[in-house]
Specification:
The chain is an alpha/beta fold. The chain has one domain: 3-Layer(aba) Sandwich (Rossmann fold). Helix content is about 45%, strand content about 15%. The protein is built from nine helices and seven strands. Strands 3-2-1-4-5-6-7 form a seven-stranded parallel sheet, sandwiched between helices. The longest helix is centred in the middle third of the chain and has 29 residues. The radius of gyration is 18 Å and the shape is globular. The termini are far apart. About 40% of the residues are buried.
Amino acid sequence: MKTVLITGCSSGYGLETAHYFHAHGWNVIATMRTPRKDLLPNSPRMHVIALDVTQPASIVAALEASGPIDVLVNNAGVGLFGAFEVTPMATVREVFEANTFGVMAMIQAVLPQFRTRQSGVIVNVTSSATLAPFPLVAAYTASKMAIEGFTGSLALELEAFNLRVKLIEPGYAPSTRFTENGQERMQGLISEPYLPFAQSCFAALSQLSAVTHESDVAEAVWRAVHDESGTLRFAAGADAVALAQMK
């Protein structure tokens, strides 16, 4: 039985992906900053572990508790929507700590066991914001674009050890808690003179007919984990697929 460790499982893509792999017979290590076992099935194949990817000691403790894993899914991250002009650099650094450096730290921590076994898959979840420019998410996009470049290079670097590295690029998912989870971080980031522009952006998003659902991302992660064709990028959701095809 194979084991997958998924970061950021308290809601959204991570939670759905944990359910998906468990339903398909895998042993699942579902991690979140504040563990909530009630969110996931009560099963000997489901393990909920505390993990904050921005804290080195937390990473070490989580991996020690997990034991050997076959797949790492880097899903944990934070959202940010607002005008860059008024975004404090401390907030930008906070976003990079979670979305960029947290991903790198997790990978660096699991690579010794993967390389020694000459087996393992790493899946990094980014965003469709990397497929086309979107307004009011400049810092967030930068944090995800960094992982896109990092992942492409790392995939080539690890081929010699029979390790596979993949990217998932989810589209816009109004049903996730992206905005809700970042409310405090986004306070004051949309104000005059940007408010009219932001309102027009929100109106356009509300009219989208093709969006991404949590299940789209879970299925894309599953395909990526099992892919041996050398494909690096997996767009997830109808809108993301359309953007990827245009690109």
